[in-house]
């Protein structure tokens, strides 16, 4: 059985295919999950809506607690890290992470950044040792997970080689820290032209939905083979 962690981070409630002014990124993640369920109805889907229920941001107390050895932590440290522990456990238990991440001011929503900051955890998802020769850190998530980032953008040309690709900090902001902890199998699709509201918007929606289904199909084959091994 494959387990999927489905995350939405848009501040917009509802999907753009079901609600006026709904979220395009929620639309794409729903498309992925619906296609997956049609092919593999018995797989487990864990859902987390960080757009509606954002994780607490990292604080000085959080950093103090996270960098204290588990056996040396005081009770308040365990309290501070409780939500992060839950988020890390969800991540570690998943085979695939499907994240809806709209572009806000060229980057990810603050709610999604809080999720990233909570799951990049020393001793849990990456190791660090100052005395180690060469690179002092190493990834601890090494079981072949996949990450799919499904995004939306008001303008166009943010993909690699596009007219404003240098202004896109969404996918890199997700892929780079997840690669750091060991999740290197990475995929993405995005709806563009949202601010235009014309035929180009509709064409971009259709293209992104097709790309989303293609990613789902690829991962269905990949993880079916992995589970059978």
UniProtKB/TrEMBL annotation:
InterPro entries: Flavodoxin_fold (IPR003680), Flavoprotein-like_sf (IPR029039), FMN-dep_NADH:Q_OxRdtase_AzoR1 (IPR050104), NADH:quinone_OxRdtase_FMN_depd (IPR023048). Its EC number is 1.6.5.-, 1.7.1.17. Gene3D superfamilies: 3.40.50.360. Keywords: Flavoprotein, FMN, NAD, Oxidoreductase. It catalyses: N,N-dimethyl-1,4-phenylenediamine + anthranilate + 2 NAD(+) = 2-(4-dimethylaminophenyl)diazenylbenzoate + 2 NADH + 2 H(+); 2 a quinone + NADH + H(+) = 2 a 1,4-benzosemiquinone + NAD(+). Binds 1 FMN per subunit. It comes from the Bacteria. Residues 1-25 are annotated as: Disordered. FMN binds at residues 10, 23-25, 103-106. Residues 3-207 form the Flavodoxin-like fold domain. Its cofactor is FMN. Belongs to the azoreductase type 1 family. Homodimer. Also exhibits azoreductase activity. Catalyzes the reductive cleavage of the azo bond in aromatic azo compounds to the corresponding amines. This is FMN dependent NADH:quinone oxidoreductase. It comes from Thalassospira povalilytica. The gene is azoR.
